[in-house]
Specification:
13 helices; mainly alpha; transmembrane; EC 4.1.99.5; endoplasmic reticulum; globular; NADP
Length: 301
Amino acid sequence: MIPYATVEAAEEALGRAMTWMEVAWFRHSRSTPDYCLYYESLVILLTVYSVTSLPLTLLELCAPAKLTTPYKLQPEARLSPAAFLGCYKETLRVLVLVIISPVLYLPYPILKMAGTRTGLPLPSAGEVAAQLVVYMLVEDYFGYWLHRLLHSRWAYDNIHYIHHEYPAPIGFAALHSHWVELLILGFSVFVGTVIVPCHMATFMLWLAIRGIVSVDTHSGYDFPFSPAKLIPFYGGAQCHDYHHFGGKWSQSNFAPFFTFCDYIYGTDKGYKHHKASLEKNMESVRSEKEGLNGSISRKQD
């Protein structure tokens, strides 16, 4: 909670006028306990997951196949509306149970002890950007190893198999997991914010970004115009779709964000071979089409 009753009192304490974002944060958080702000961040994650998955679902179910097939990574895999709804309902049930459970309250005091703050001033854009980069790198490393652990025989057969129920992933399958897996991989999401403490607003933004990335990597589509392609070393849907395609036996593409952990530890070889084979096949198809077009042109001449 912010210890100021009015905007004027807060500005007097800061020694300057507040920005519009600081005013908005002040009005929102001045009477809200800090632990409620923490739980709001979890609600933000849930909301982002639901909202960003919806357009992909509508695209899959409503758009003509001839428009989506060029971008769909597994074009032969088409799910029914009931399958989409079932995935979302089951995932939502598990997420709500995890969010309201006492277990998820544990990270809050840890974040507070680490130095997460809720007051004014808000961090600068540069500080937020630097912290987000750190969180991505930290999660990528821890998430890589925890994901590999989940592909051990016992962990997969008892926990991780639920997430792989969709070999051709969809947006709603991003968080479709056993509740234990949500806690295990949630550690890699939180640990960076403990190592490098931030403002609660940054923490909320981090969880929102994490939700968007998770949906994107499970979207099942590889759009050439996606802004994510501008991010260096970003794995994206293409990498993770291959991981899901392999299912229990997948030994490639474990990292949640980037590709360098898989490269360093040699778990990208299967994917690279697969990608090279696809490119070779596409080149053969293009050559055949060019040859056919050339033959038709000569006949017309």
